[in-house]
Specification:
This protein has 272 residues and is mainly α. The protein is 67% helix and 0% strand. It has one domain.
């Protein structure tokens, strides 16, 4: 059963919103400085996961002296920190060559003026706003007062499935790309046999799980738009569509699309 108790510490939570916003702003300012010095704004991709870690830690500390449920606070903190650090570490490792991501290079090449100023407006500001909005699920959940119930544990299980898909999918893709003989071909084995985007599906499952952990107690239900935005972006906006547009001309990719589920893992379709 969902907990609808009304003893949510609204006044302390309001201050946490400010602290979290300042934390995100500080991280993005540091990231921007590093990007300008390194002359590559794709470093913000590494900061994305770290931003949620910053918010989770701030919210955990802010809710310490309240009546918020300790079990939920610890569960959310562990889940966000593990997910965020893994994602940041993987993206940082993937970009270890120090080169600008072609997507950012193409976008910044169209800048009407100074590219750094343009990046601030078109990259950092939007991502900061989205990061803060999506993190509301975590922030609210940290202050929820009801005990962990069925939906919280279900959310934990879904989070674990999502993290596993994301981690294994990224590992399988990295191994595939490391083999020069496979360059220009399409990965169709492992988790990629059941979904064309196990990493994006895993990310979506992680945020669905975090939402259920928070929504198990009032007023976590009110943050439903936060995971919805994240899942929509992954499945229909900046994740799956952009990746498939980039892969469209690769030999065998059309056949792969015809046989493999676009997002949710399903058994491969038989050749017609």
């Amino acid at each position: 059963m969902l907990d609808f108790s009304l003893d949510f510490p609204f006044s302390v939570f309001a201050w946490n919103l400010l602290y979290s916003a300042l934390g995100v702003l500080g991280l993005l300012a540091l990231t921007y400085l590093v990007a300008v010095l390194q002359k590559r704004h794709s470093v913000i991709d590494t900061a994305w996961g770290l931003g949620f870690v910053v918010v989770a830690v701030i919210s955990f500390l802010s809710s310490t002296a309240t009546t918020a449920d300790g079990g939920r606070r610890l569960l959310l903190l562990a889940a966000v920190v593990l997910w965020g650090l893994r994602l940041a570490g993987f993206i940082g490792w993937r970009a270890r060559d120090g080169k600008e991501d072609p997507r950012y290079a193409a976008m910044l090449s169209k800048a009407p003026g100074n590219q750094n100023v343009y990046a601030l407006r078109r990259v950092y500001l939007p991502q900061g706003i989205v990061l803060f909005f999506v993190s509301l699920t975590v922030q609210v959940g940290m202050f929820a007062t009801g005990p962990l119930g069925f939906f919280a544990w279900l959310g934990g299980l879904i989070w674990l499935i999502g993290l596993s898909f994301e981690t294994i999918g990224d590992w399988q893709l990295a191994r595939f790309k490391a083999d020069p003989s496979r360059r220009g071909t399409v990965l169709k084995s492992g988790l990629w046999r059941y979904t064309r985007h196990p990493n994006y599906f895993g990310d979506a499952a992680v945020w669905l799980g975090l939402f259920l952990i928070s929504a198990d107690s009032w007023p976590g239900l009110l943050t439903v738009l936060s995971p919805t935005l994240m899942i929509w972006a992954l499945a229909a906006r900046t994740g799956k569509p952009l990746t498939e547009a980039r892969m469209d001309g690769r030999p065998g990719y059309r056949e792969y699309i015809a046989q493999t589920s676009g997002f949710f893992p399903l058994p491969p379709r038989k050749d017609s």
